[in-house]
């Protein structure tokens, strides 16, 4: 099918739109409205991605300075007389003349090093000719910002009747207690911290009091994050009804937005009613002074927590102290946590923060279990130095981000980053590299790369490649990607990413490349989400998403999207991607323009293979629900006008800007900025409904849509080498090109990690 832009008189366009609307509505509803019935009985095989993974070669370790757990900082730092701390080695490097040297290496011997924060300044920098390398040798080197707890220091909860009386008989047999205030730990309230609000959309900052701060200390047993005693033990509750919706910023949904809401102090909060059984349970808790609620109060992409504000057992009314930012609904999923009475199963723990009594349900292997408590409030490695390489460390135990680098020409490689409250690795600057790392058990995200200049489009040239990222975003459960690209010209490539509640890769800015990544089993707790996501901009032109394999997203009732260009995102190139078993839309274009959707292979999308809507046009011309594109008030216009979109640099880099207009009198032209004028070509689709997707009326009028091929599942094995067993290589490329002349085969052998 092919649609090309033609010149239309303003009186003709509405008629054509009406005709297309009728056709599109009938086509989509008749052929797409029975999606669930048709596609549930067809599940495509997971892709067999075979990549040439080679272990990084470790040569002979020769250092200029050495560190050992058996060393002494009064030593000279040689192999025979090593330092005791990494900080002392950094001092020695700083004082070494780098003239004429081709590098300086600090070798750190296997063992665990208690590091609250290793801080490097500009004075600790290397140079292009003489980079500084910190590396492990002789086994695993652990940088631990927390404390390792000894099982022998715990005792039965029966020795603490003030806690035991709150527990069930079964819990009394299984819960053990450690007094953190006593030797050898001798910790205080400052060490373990209080509970502050978490979630990407909490409203705690609008309330008077001490509610915003770092995450509390966390307990890890055998490298598994333990859950603060909660009810229910898993899953979520729902309210019986909403009694009252408070003063949230968008309590009515997308509009109206309360102006200057963030300046309002102590906004009126929400009131819910719980069922009789739950009310009785809550009434049985000794007190609610520090009991919290965590939930998705309106949308499954907006998580937030709040302490309980008040509870009335007679009326069964309960109120979070903090209002929901986006409003309320009775079916909002939520749970209670920090409830000592609910310490009822393995994997849960509770800390009496007043007295420093740590309680947890001991595992079956308690005597030999590895028990860690995170403590540091800072990044374990915090560097402002240039030309530094960190190679082969295990980093864990902080209540903040694990590694923070604000400098240029740095590398973090072959590291294992785990058991941290914040992000794994934040690198701000240019020419930085995160390579061959494993990242798991973070409270927030994985790798954040930021760098480059938007005005000049100077690239940051930072790269996240060959990383293995899984089981992250365990505290903040929305918008905490495994990899985030910000700025201009950074790269996310060859990473393997899986098992998280929300998105895998996100980006904003210009000229980023997302390529050769293997992504699966993400967006497990969200519908309105995408494995690869960016959105809401007419200025983020030049980004490329290519040669990624995305499959088996969502879980249970959650049906997310594959590649999601949200809220009028424009100027993206999405080509050569393989998307399999995407529960909702394989590729969603939310009203944007100048997007290229080309040469993608889509197998079994649950809703639509391609969904392209006209939300920006509808907002601009009809004041539709997407308020950000409203003429005169939408912030997308403000961002556009404040950007360099009309500068010579941008016009040269993005020639599309030379062909668009903000003149509403030209809204019947493809050049009008809010119009969804895109290119959709050469996409190969396997769909039981023979459906390209849902393309809204003005998309069809203003876009070029041609040379796409749609096949029924029964033809999959005629197209692919062995679809039944996950081999999605094209069997006969020349035959495919008879329908799609511009189709290029996806280089499946290059997808995923190639090293490490």
Could you explain the architecture of this structure?
It is a single chain. The protein is built from 13 helices and 56 strands. The protein is globular, with a radius of gyration of 28 Å. Among the domains are: 1-49 and 514-756, no CATH class; 149-363, no CATH class. By secondary structure, the protein is of the alpha/beta class. β14 (292-295) and β15 (304-312) form a beta hairpin.
Task: Summarize the entry for a quick read.
The protein has 756 residues and is α/β, with parallel strands linked by helices. Among the domains are: 1-49 and 514-756, no CATH class; 149-363, no CATH class. The chain is 13% helix and 30% strand.
Mean pLDDT: 92
Percent helix: 10-25%
**How far from one another are the termini?**
44 Å
Largest sheet: 25 strands, parallel
Structural class determined from secondary elements: alpha/beta
Low-confidence stretches: 1-12, 14-40
Number of strands: 56
Number of helices: 13
Task: Characterize the overall form.
Answer: globular
Write down the Rg. 28 Å
Which range does the strand content fall in? Answer: 25-35%
Structural key phrases:
alpha/beta; 30% strand; 13-stranded mixed sheet
Strand and helix layout:
Blueprint: H1 13-32, H2 35-39, E1 65-67, H3 86-94, E2 104-114, E3 118-120, E4 132-144, E5 147-149, E6 155-156, H4 161-164, H5 169-174, E7 175-179, H6 189-192, E8 219-221, E9 224-225, E10 227-228, E11 230-231, E12 241-244, E13 271-273, H7 276-283, E14 292-295, E15 304-312, E16 317-320, E17 334-337, E18 348-352, E19 357-361, E20 371-373, E21 381-383, E22 388-391, E23 393-396, E24 403-406, E25 411-413, E26 416-420, E27 425-428, E28 433-435, E29 438-442, E30 447-453, E31 458-459, E32 463-465, E33 468-470, E34 483-488, E35 491-493, E36 496-498, E37 505-510, E38 513-515, E39 518-520, E40 530-535, E41 544-546, E42 549-551, E43 561-566, E44 573-575, E45 578-582, E46 585-589, E47 596-598, E48 601-605, E49 608-612, H8 615-622, H9 635-642, H10 648-653, E50 679-681, E51 684-686, E52 693-695, H11 697-702, E53 704-706, E54 709-711, H12 716-719, E55 720-722, E56 727-730, H13 733-739
Parallel strand pairs: 1-2, 2-4, 3-21, 4-22, 4-23, 10-18, 21-24, 22-25, 23-26, 24-27, 25-28, 26-29, 27-30, 28-32, 29-33, 30-34, 32-35, 33-36, 34-37, 35-38, 36-39, 37-40, 38-41, 39-42, 40-43, 41-44, 42-45, 43-46, 44-47, 45-48, 46-49, 47-50, 48-51, 49-52, 50-53, 51-54
Antiparallel strand pairs: 5-20, 6-7, 7-19, 8-9, 8-20, 11-17, 12-13, 13-16, 14-15, 14-17, 15-16, 18-19, 30-31, 55-56
